[in-house]
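Q: Fold this one first, please.
A: Sequence and structure below.
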Amino acid sequence: TDNQINDFMKTLSGTEVSDIHEIKETLEDYFMSFYKENKTFGGI
């Protein structure tokens, strides 16, 4: 959520950060991953 991101950035503001990376994922990728796991584990 936005509040969690804001809290995280406030925490980082007191440190020396040289680089931040993110893993970009489309909504389609997210849901396909979810459905694959659901099928693999039988809905558990």
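Q: Good. Now the second chain.
A: Here it is, same layout.
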Amino acid sequence: MEGTYPSLKYLEKKKRNLGFQLRKNPSLKNFFFNFLNKPIMNFIYVLFPKIPVPTIFAWDVEGPTVYVSGDWDGWRGTIPLCPSELDFSGLIPLYPGEYIYKFSVDGKWKYATITKIEKNFQGTFNNSSAITRLWEFLYPDDSLLEKIIFQDTFFSDFESQNLKRYNRKTSTMPPHYIAFF
């Protein structure tokens, strides 16, 4: 049937069944994660291949006005960065790929020395950044994926509460952007 999707109840049942099968057979579990490589998110990317990744650009040197510009829009515009206590930062949704960018600080083009730097054909320096898929951005560690997908099948409620409490990482994202997630 075109345009129909499985119900959430059906998917939950399949998830529990798969968790049970993987608990019984550890080699199947290794095959599942090594061969299929993040199967659920790959399925989502097949359905929705163009998912922008929220990307933070930050300038940590003082200046009254800071903008960022890059080849994501063909260098057509500049995006203002918001001042915070420690730096200027901005959140730009970008599709996965490799991007070149530069900062405009008080009307002068500059590059950040703390990020990757590339020299272009004109001899000037720019920053570059590789944007990965959203899933890799949120969960860079494969073992974390395993805990999220099969948490309710492998751990009791008490164990999963402790796991959440002790495995929590601090955010590198400015606090005023966390509300977006």
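Q: Anything worth noting on the second one?
A: Residues 8-48+141-180 form one domain.
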